[in-house]
Every structure is written in C-alpha cells, then in structure tokens.
Fold these 2 entries.
Entry 1:
Amino acid sequence: MANRRLTDRQRRQIEQNAKKRRENSLLGEGEDLEGIIIARFSKAAIVMDEDHEVHRCHLRPNLAHLVAGDRVLWQKNEQGAVVSTQLERQSEIKRPDVRGQLKAVAANVDLIIIVIAPEPEPFGNLIDRYLVAAHLEGIDTVIALNKSDLVPANPASRELINRYEAIGYPIIETGPDDESTKALSDLLGKQTAVFVGQSGVGKSSMINRLIPDQDLRVGALSESVLKGKHTTTTTEVFRRPEGGLIIDSPGIREFGLQHVAVEDVAPGFKDFQAFIDRCKYRDCRHLVEQGCAVLSALEHGAISQERYESFVNIVNDIGEKSH
Ligand SMILES: Nc1nc2c(ncn2[C@@H]2O[C@H](COP(=O)(O)OP(=O)(O)OP(=O)(O)O)[C@@H](O)[C@H]2O)c(=O)[nH]1
Ligand SMILES: [Mg+2]
Ligand SMILES: [Zn+2]
C-alpha cells in the first residue's frame, strides 16, 4: 500500500504555504487551501476541500497535467477560485492516449479494482495487462467479478476468476446483494481505490451501491450487442461516508502497454515469479530459449497455457508498437 504520510517535500510545501498565507492575508489575497482534484475538465477542475465541500476552480496554465486524485493548493479570489500548486504524487495510473502518448489518468491511488462480469465477456488478457501495469507502479490489485446474479448462468466467468485466485491474486465477487457490497466496503477500508475495466461491467453501479446517496450515471447495456455503452466519460473521485475515496473511470476496450519495457512483463505475472530467476540465461525472454524455466513450468503445467499465451501476446504487442 502506498505511504499516506506526508513526504518531506510536502511538509516543506505546507510550511512555505503557511508563510505565504500570512503574507497574503496582509495583502488581502485569498489564502492557500488544500484540496483534492475530484474531476478534471480542459481548463478547470472540481476541487474537494478539507471539509468535503466542492469548488469549481480555474487552473494555472502550468498545471494542465493535473488528474483526478491529485492533491493541490488552491485559493479563492474575487474572480472565483484557482488551483496554484500540485503536491507530490504518491502513485499514478498511466495509460497511453489516442496518440500513443503516456498520460497519467489518476493519482494517489492505493488499490486498483479490476472489474469483470459475466457480460460483457471477460478477457484474461485485459486483466493481465492491468496486473502488469499495477505491479510496475507498485499498486495493490483486487479482481472483482461483478453481476454475481448472472454468474450461475455463466459459470465460465467464475472459472476465470478462480484461476486468478489459485495463482494468489486477491479476488472478490460482487452483485446486487447487500452482503457482497458490505464485503467490498470492508475491503476498501479507508484506501483510495480506482475501479477499472471494460465498459458495461458495472463499475459505476458498484460505486452507486457503495455510496447510495451518490447519484452516479449508470448506463443500460445495449440489449442487441451486449457490449457496454460508454457511460462514464470522465475520471471522477467520490468520497465514501466510511472514509476513503473511490475513483470511477471510463470503461476501455484495449489497454496498450507500449510504455512498459518487454523485460518488465514477466515479473508482473505472479505465477512466473518462482521460475524467472531459474532460467539458464539472465536475459531470457521466456520465448524460445534453451534452459528456460518458464517454458519448462509451462510444459509441466505449473504455468497455464492461457496465461503463457497472454504473456506472449503482451510481449509481441510491445515489440510491434515500439518499432
Ligand atoms: N445483473 C446485474 N447487472 C448489473 C450489475 N451491476 C451493474 N449492472 C448493469 O450493467 C450495466 C452497466 O453498468 P455501469 O455501472 O454503467 O457499467 P460501467 O462499468 O460503469 O460502464 P462504463 O461507464 O461505460 O465504463 C447497467 O445496465 C447496470 O444496471 C449487477 O450486479 N447485476
Ligand atoms: Mg461507468
Ligand atoms: Zn526464461
């Protein structure tokens, strides 16, 4: 879990801030206040203050890269409110944008909830991509199988999540019932968690259930294609009454990992970890090499065919896109 204590840099910033506040109050300008970005628009942001009140703020031009979850300093003035300073990030979730440029999409996240559901059909490869990215950032993950009411009719989704549980990844099953919502709530505790996954798996619905008085927009699955419509369009932060923050993010169909080095993929596969140090060559790519312990684990069934193929898919994808 990310360290939530103030870093030295943040502490210095707050001290400087107090000094500036005294100076500002002499000048009659707004004092520095702390807040969290809960939603980002092109030239503005919604900031939640320490009393959980929200304010629409302008952004200083040098702060164009602020994202949901960022901690900031902001001031009120006659024209409204303005964010002036970004405080240091403890962690960030990054994703390539449409032009392939790596962009942070959320900051200061302790936990990533990777949501899947019986429908739309889940793909192990997308789960694996999230797991690799989270491992690199050092952020904990939980795989959530949502729409538990539909699982009996789609047992394949439970088989999929059980395979991840067998590897040692934390999982949870959630649905419309109160018990599973309570279990999810207990698991989240006071952490900051981001919900990610395909469109239509029920991320916003899960957040609605956790925060019943928060009227999030929830989309209806289009009956004909059973492919989730994109309902959530911006990444947004919600405060849980129990403490802790939840970040809702727009559903995605693909998750490019071009920003990841090929050699960082295997360490993100928990089931490979026992083997990667036993390969004959230190720079083994685990593809065709002689004396590769991963390939021999695959042969003996200690690594599943699905996971190995998923690994090769990610490695090939990175290789192609970086040329
Ligand atoms: N049967 C069933 N349907 C659910 C459950 N949770 C959500 N849904 C339905 O799934 C559909 C999609 O839910 P959303 O919460 O909008 O999904 P999302 O993951 O936020 O989608 P995007 O915002 O597009 O990424 C809606 O019709 C929900 O009513 C559940 O536990 N059981
Ligand atoms: Mg949504
Ligand atoms: Zn190897």
Entry 2:
Amino acid sequence: MTKQLAALLIIMLLGITACGQAKEQKIVTEDNQDIRSKSDGYWKEKLEPHVYEVTRCSATEPAFSGKYWNNHEAGEYRCSNCGELLFESTDKFDSGTGWPSFTQAQGSSVETKKDISHGMVREEAVCKKCGAHLGHLFDDGPQPTGMRYCINSASLDFKSEKKKDSK
Ligand SMILES: [Zn+2]
C-alpha cells in the first residue's frame, strides 16, 4: 500500500502527461455515431479542462481533491464523457486513498489495459464505450472480489438515487 501511495505521489509530482502523444487526426463527420473515433479536438471542446486532462490525457487528480472520494450517497456513477453506467454506489468502499474506490464495475463497462508509464506496470481502467481514462485497477481490494478500482472523480458523473428519474 505505501509503495503504491509513493508511486501515486510521483505521478502527481510529475504532473506532465503524454497528452496528444497519440493524437489521431481522424475526420469525424456529423453522422458518425462511433464515439470511439471522436477526435482529440472534439473532447477538448466538449469537456471541462480538468476533466479533459484526466480522461483524455490520463492525468491523475490529487488525492482527496475530487468531488466523489467522500460521497456516501446511494446512486450510480456514470462516465463523465459519454454517460455510460460504470459503477454503483453499493460497490463503493472507503479505501483511505482519497480517490473513489470500487470493488467491481458494472457489467463489462470498464476495460483494462496494461499501463507502463512512469516506470510502473499497472492496469489502467478505461471506459469501454468511449475510451475515457478512468483510473487504475489494483488487486488489493476487499473481499469477495479482492479488486480495487481506483477512479478519478473527474472521470465520473454521479446520479443520486433520488434524482435518477429526472436525469
Ligand atoms: Zn465513456
């Protein structure tokens, strides 16, 4: 745990991401429904700067800074980029890390990719629908899954149970 926290600190200190490194200048037409093929410019325009930095440039928000790490309300967590349902509040737990943490994702909404940035080998958690960077997946979570999805608040859009019907 301390090793991981130290690693996360290093990431935060580095701060600089490889944004735009793999920028694909695809021509996107108006009727293109494939959200995966949206250009970098599309997201830059659509998203708040800090959300863009996290979800499209794989930045990590500082611990205890996001809006959901300490949120205990019942509801669902959707992708801040495309609205896909990613996590349920019933799977959220207090990991003490300062980032929203979940023991499992909803269905197959979250995919993982090997991330070898910053001199570490980690599993990156990505929205399967739109490709947004969410955070990382670790295997030190509580039972029964033993998994810990460590997610940036900026990647999430919380819908309270109470307001679900009026979304
Ligand atoms: Zn998404």
